[in-house]
Design a protein that fits this description.
The complex is a heterodimer of chains A (about 550) and B (about 425).
Chain A: H1 2-16, E1 47-49, H2 52-63, H3 70-78, H4 82-90, H5 95-108, H6 129-149, E2 163-165, H7 167-172, E3 175-177, E4 185-189, H8 202-207, H9 217-228, H10 247-256, H11 258-271, H12 285-288, H13 298-303, E5 308-309, E6 312-313, H14 320-326, H15 328-343, H16 352-364, H17 369-378, H18 380-383, E7 384-387, H19 393-398, H20 407-418, E8 423-424, E9 427-428, H21 458-481, H22 502-516, H23 522-539, H24 541-554, H25 556-559
Antiparallel strand pairs in A: 1-7, 2-4, 3-4, 5-6, 8-9
Chain B: H1 5-11, H2 26-29, E1 31-37, E2 63-67, E3 70-74, H3 79-88, E4 92-99, H4 105-114, H5 124-132, E5 140-142, E6 156-158, H6 164-170, H7 186-205, H8 210-224, H9 226-235, H10 244-256, E7 262-267, H11 282-304, E8 317-322, E9 326-327, E10 339-340, E11 342-349, E12 356-359, H12 386-396, H13 401-404
Parallel strand pairs in B: 1-7, 1-8, 4-12, 5-6, 5-7
Antiparallel strand pairs in B: 2-3, 4-11, 8-11, 9-10
The chains are: A mainly alpha (about 550), B alpha/beta (about 425).
Chain lengths: ~550, ~425
């Protein structure tokens, strides 16, 4: 009920347009003259913020997927106020785009494993299976992430005539590159589809397909839910006592029965605009790979209603993107969605003022997504690290003072520290479920599991154990045995060094600091050294370092923030 | 396969804290074996003998039949269905004509398994396990397919579609890498476990309150279960189930070893060809036959195994057969059927008042209203929804439905 009320409240706000809102609770940035001098009115925030070091670590993992560098830790230890400038810089880091794709995937649920077509039906090789699934699901997310990082208005996500595609998508779909270079690049469909950004991507509608007697209604519902945060499915429906056994009966009921009209008077005209993606055979590559402009007219025919956007007539499918972009709910939904992603919880009624304030900042920036992210990152809800004295039980349950890394973050953070990425025959083992460990590690596929796990679980502990052991072996083999580039261990460390040796003690401290963002206490260092000696006595110094790294990576202080 | 239940019991954290004397409450000791027929089964192949109705396309060569008071659709190519109902019809209850309230797979799955389309909800297995089985090593053992958790994620232990869990346990996962990796020796792993436990204990002590404390506490619990999990994996197969029968057998093993309160297996139809028969409708018949062959074998096996609080495991296990939706009553031009919001489920075994079908379908294949107390179809009754099914499952598990689903009554007529 609370979520429904929030949706209503946000919707009403959207309809009324931006209104003066209470100021966002700021942690002022140096030179930020817009930061308010006075705390906001209303109830005091029930949490206490992370210290600068903890905040640096959280933001680095959230925005770049890696732990802070030693230089960044040095900077914040020397001057805690430096953290805000560093966080601003993270938003311009190239890795932010990848993280944004991860965060968007949690909402749009497109990065699944199951589509109606598989690699062999697309003329691909078996080792391209993972790349194929991932590319299809990421296409709409890449459009949105690219718009965000390039500083374009967020409305471009639903109005641009371009898509973002990699080599594989350009091979299997009618997409031409419009910029040079490898990897994910701007491209353009050549099949006559109208402009519409993510709305006009194959990837979106492969995930949200429709069936012959559904007539794109499920797609319209998904569009509303994903882009407007307006969920038709929260409304109770009933077909009770209606003989809806043919299209004519259905359409008549939809247009006359009050219980149906409530949803379908808006749902069906929206569905009518989506028939360029109508497939006569939902398993045929020739049907799924291309847009069908000539089928746009089938929507009004099948649904017996003209195309419209919540009551406003649409001339054709080309109107869809502009209508979405102009809808105030589109903007409020962007705010709510990014807040949820960065707060790691679902916003509720208590967040209403905060969301309003964020929306004002978003609008003032010209709908720049990075500006919205920056505003969220400055807020109490992002920075909370502990409960304030007197916090209620409800606050304790609500405030995300400690957050788990997603499998995607875990994979990139471990790779950043050790250079190890768990790959196997084209699969990234931490980010797939066909042969990998994404869901077991607390992640989601958007189909079987639609929310990241918030709590540590038995299988999470197991996945982290094996990942950590593998990474420990790999980094020792690469850096200490093979004398490769030092990424985790300091240059002065040799396998012959023992506890008590300056090089050993220095290395232990530095590894601890890289992994956890802080130096070990003396007892911690002594216990770690004793553990190292225990393993070394049985299996040698290389195994001891591998085990020490593994145990550090298994410590919740590493995989939470 | 020989099970060493006693050794597993002693290995499971918390199991020792559960004295035998505390096991007197039968509903709270029940096991639930969920089988999800994912894709949408056709009610006219089993549950809805609507022969002669002009709006309904029934299957050729099918005929109406009864197993006790259970009306059903029989077919010569589905002998296992009739055999099962003949042998276990008195322990079986059909719940017919409940309304999923959507016709989209992902939405219906969430609705049928949680009762709501909202994401902040736990599914029935997780709720049952959280209330009555949290102390077990694998409160819900999940063999694949959809699962929804919000507050009770730690209850669910997924095996993975490709048997990822056992390969992680044994270290075989290290061979699933492009790099040459090896599992550390058991001696080293033991040292790692001890050192990690100390660090987690120290971290938990400093974690403060709220979610920080919760996360550290959960982490400590999860790590403490790794050893018992390895012991369990030595005793029973936690690996890949290639068929629904193998999957159900694996879950029975887990019940027999007192590892789990709930088990969940997804059945994707005969030969894994799915239940979503927009074409090839006969696939429904093949899948029902295959499914009931597995259910029959499972019931036979449950009957033969000793229970923990009852003479046989069958006496304390409830099998739940579900599908997220039904099929549109008329055949499409491709020889299949589209989606339909009304569907059925089957409850079998412990706590179930068997030998009857509750609810039904009218001449347009819409669900009929039901008197929850008597189970009779009546216009004065209530329209069944997934929440009624959920409340019934909770009641079977000894969990107060009023607390979990306020305002929703269980289908009392389904309860023994």
């Amino acid at each position: 009920m609370r979520a429904g009320a929030l949706a209503l409240a946000v919707g009403l706000f959207g309809c009324a347009g931006p209104t003066p809102a209470p100021p966002l609770t700021h942690h002022p940035l140096p030179g930020d003259s817009a930061a308010p001098d006075d705390p906001p009115a209303g109830a005091a925030f029930a949490g206490a913020p992370l210290d600068a070091r903890g905040l640096l670590r959280r933001a680095s993992l959230d925005l770049r997927g890696v732990v802070p560098t030693e230089a960044e830790l040095d900077a914040v230890e020397a001057d805690p106020s430096a953290v805000d400038g560093l966080i601003r810089g993270f938003l311009d880091d190239p890795r932010y785009e990848e993280r944004l794709v991860d965060l968007l995937a949690e909402r749009f649920l497109t990065r699944g494993e199951e589509f109606n077509l598989r690699w062999f039906e697309m003329g691909l090789d078996p080792e391209q299976d993972f790349a194929f699934r991932r590319a299809v699901g990421e296409e709409p997310l890449r459009v949105m992430a690219r718009v965000a990082v390039e500083g374009r208005p967020w409305t471009d996500t639903v109005t641009t005539e371009l898509t973002v595609a990699n080599e594989l998508l350009r091979e299997i779909w009618p997409i031409e590159a419009v910029e040079e270079g490898a990897g994910w690049r701007w491209g353009r469909y050549t099949d006559g589809r109208p402009a519409g950004g993510a709305l006009m991507t194959n990837g979106l509608w492969w995930r949200y397909y429709t069936t012959p007697n559904n007539f794109s209604r499920s797609r319209a519902s998904a569009l509303s839910r994903l882009f407007l945060c307006e969920d038709f499915l929260t409304r109770p429906i009933s077909f009770e006592s209606l003989a809806l056994l043919d299209r004519e009966s259905q359409n008549e009921a939809i247009q006359t029965v009050p219980a149906c009209v409530g949803c379908h008077s808006t749902l069906d005209p929206l569905a009518a605009s989506l028939f360029g993606f109508w497939w006569f055979d939902i398993y045929a590559p020739a049907e799924l790979n291309v847009y069908h402009p000539e089928r746009e007219m089938l929507g009004p025919y099948y649904l017996e209603t003209e195309m419209a956007w919540f009551g406003a007539p649409m001339a054709d499918a080309a109107d869809l993107g502009p209508f979405v972009a102009d809808d105030p709910r589109f903007r409020s939904c962007a705010v709510k969605s990014l807040a949820a992603a960065l707060w790691r919880r679902t916003p509720d009624l208590a967040d209403f003022d905060t969301l309003q304030a964020l929306q004002v900042e978003f609008e003032a920036s010209g709908l720049r997504h990075k500006a919205l992210a920056a505003a969220i990152l400055q807020g109490d809800d992002y920075r909370v690290g502990a409960l304030a004295p007197g916090a209620s039980e409800a606050d304790a349950a609500r405030l995300t003072t400690r957050r788990l890394l997603s499998p995607e973050q875990l994979a990139s953070a471990v790779e950043g520290l050790t250079g190890f990425r768990w790959a196997h025959r084209g699969y990234d083992q931490l980010t797939n479920d066909v042969v990998g460990y994404r869901i077991l590690g607390g992640g989601m596929d958007g189909q079987s599991v639609t929310r990241p796990e918030r709590d540590p679980t038995l299988t999470h502990a197991l996945v982290v154990q094996r990942l950590a052991q593998a990474a420990g072996q790999a980094v020792v083999a690469d850096e200490l045995v093979a004398a490769g580039e030092r990424r985790l261990f300091p240059a002065g460390l040799r396998l012959t060094d023992r506890p008590g040796d300056a090089a050993f003690d220095d290395a232990l401290g530095r590894v601890h600091r890289r992994v956890f963002g802080r130096w070990p206490t003396d007892p911690e260092a002594q216990e770690a050294a004793a553990f190292w000696e225990g393993v070394a006595a049985a299996n040698g110094p290389d195994a001891a370092w591998a085990s020490l790294v593994a145990v550090f990576l298994r410590d919740p202080a590493f995989w939470t923030h | 396969m020989r099970l060493s239940r006693r050794s597993l019991l002693s290995a499971a954290p918390g199991a020792l804290l559960l004295p035998r004397l505390a096991r007197a409450d039968a509903p709270a000791q029940r096991r639930f074996l969920f089988v999800l027929a994912e894709g949408g089964w056709d009610q006219t192949f089993l549950f809805a003998p609507l022969f002669g109705e002009p709006l309904i396309d029934m299957e050729d060569d099918a005929e109406p039949a009864f197993a006790g008071d259970i009306p059903y659709v029989a077919h010569g190519e589905r002998p296992s269905v009739s055999a099962f109902l003949s042998r276990y019809g008195d322990k079986t209850c059909f719940i017919n004509g409940f309304e999923a309230r959507s016709v989209a797979h992902d939405v219906c799955l969430r609705l049928v398994l949680t009762g709501t389309s909202l994401p902040a909800a736990d599914d029935w297995p997780a709720r049952i396990a959280a209330a009555t089985g949290a102390q077990l090593l694998l409160p819900v053992i999940h063999l694949g397919g959809p699962g929804y958790t919000h507050s009770h994620g730690a209850m669910v232990v997924r095996v993975g579609d490709a048997g990822q869990l056992p390969e992680l346990v044994t270290g075989e996962a290290f061979t699933r890498s492009d790099r040459l990796l090896r599992r550390p020796s058991s001696a080293v792993e033991s040292l790692e476990a001890d050192f990690l436990a100390g660090r987690i204990a120290a971290g938990a002590a400093a974690a403060g309150a709220g979610r920080s404390a919760h996360v550290w506490s959960r982490a400590a619990d999860a790590v403490s279960r790794l050893g018992p999990l390895a012991a369990a994996a030595d005793e029973i197969n936690l690996g890949v189930a290639r068929t629904v029968k193998e999957g159900m057998s694996l879950l029975v093993d887990a019940f027999a070893a007192d590892l789990s309160r709930c088990g969940f297996v997804r059945y994707r139809g005969w030969q894994n060809l799915g239940w979503d028969t927009h074409a090839d409708l006969p696939q429904q018949g093949r899948s029902f036959e295959d499914l009931f062959d597995a259910v029959l074998a499972t019931m036979d096996r449950l009957q033969a195994l000793p229970g923990h609080s009852a003479p046989t495991l069958a006496d304390e296990t409830t099998i739940v057969l579900l599908s997220e939706m039904g099929r549109y009553p008329q055949i499409n031009p491709r020889g299949g059927k589209e989606h339909w919001t009304y569907t059925s489920c089957v409850l079998i075994g412990a706590g179930v008042r068997g030998g009857r079908a509750i609810g039904g379908y009218d001449s347009a294949c819409a669900g009929q209203r039901v008197d929850l107390a008597s189970g009779d179809s009546t216009p004065q009754g209530v329209a069944l929804t997934p929440n009624h099914v959920g409340a019934t499952l909770l009641a079977l598990a000894g969990v107060d439905p009023a607390a979990e689903l306020p305002g929703v009554e269980p289908i009392h007529a389904a309860l023994a």
